[in-house]
Write a structure and sequence with these properties.
Structural class: alpha/beta
Low-confidence stretches: none
Largest sheet: 6 strands, mixed
Number of helices: 9
Strand order of the largest sheet: 1-2-6-3-7-15
Distance between the termini: 32 Å
Mean pLDDT: 97
Length: 375
Amino acid sequence: MDKTEKLLRELIALPSVNPAFLPPQDPCAGEQRVADFLAATAARAGLDVEFQRVLPGRSNLLARLLPPREPQRRILLAPHLDTVNGDEAQFTPRTHNRRLFGRGACDIKACVAAILSALCALAQSRQRPAETEIVFVGLVDEENAQAGSRALAASGFRADLAIVGEPTRLQVVTAHKGSLWLELQTHGKSAHGARPELGRNAVHEMARIVDLLETHYAAGLRRHRHRLLGCATVSVGTIRGGTQANIVPDRCVISIDRRTLPGETESGVCREIQALLRQRQLRAVIGNAKLAACLPLETDPRLPLVSEFLRSAGQPRPAGVDYFCDASVLAGGGIPSVVFGPGDIAQAHTASEWISLSSLQRGHAMLFRFLQALP
């Protein structure tokens, strides 16, 4: 077992479930036990360690490798530390057929292990950057509201490149979709179920809206494609309406997931949906269900450090992914950002979450090679 695999097994055994997904005071909640463990690991390797308080009991971890000369550039390595929830067995790592299983094995602790082990190995290497500062930041709350990356960006932290850890199958990703959650409400008039003609059925109105969104609107989105991301999408995720069978419902609510492309805005999406509803003589109140904006990412692959990372990875052109992550938040704060890490998002959040050990080791080696070659 090499050091990166050992570190990953230790991380899986330390639950760091986002508190948003657990009842209050749940012993698996929060990132602090993982942050403290990583801080001790980084300090033993000679990194300078500090914490940035974000929420009560939840802090970003910063571990710096300072160069021997005056820094001319700064590289940010930024995986998040929180995971979604899992059953008790998932917090015990197990290996089978060169795959390591456990909650967070793919999303996100393989990225954490590959990134930090590469930085620690660089700190103890004789050949290391002379003028480049490298900062590992373990971010809190990515799985819910991205409070960690938003706090870091708001603090004025600056870097010349952020490599945000996510399972990308070891592809350097320069673009990802935005995530917009909208709530649509229809309002009707209640009446006795024996006399439905005296009421106005809000569920029926919403049923027509759901059909319109999933057919006509979705087909329109498929007509426009981004070169890395494909088309924008819409999906109706929940519907709530009515109180009992013999009352005509006067209110119905749906939530929709709208994945956006670079150039699209929340206000623009709301306007296009409202225009479509008016064309069909349908009425709904539209509101945002997200705590903060989750915008698309599009980083210029011609930026010097981005193109150097692509060359180091042996990748002739950048990639794009469908999911949203902290990279967009950091880019919005002025830090050019890409996404990179071992593993496949298809295994993330699943009951049998796993990471290929060969992918983990390759990720470590690729990051170490890129970081060691920096001036």
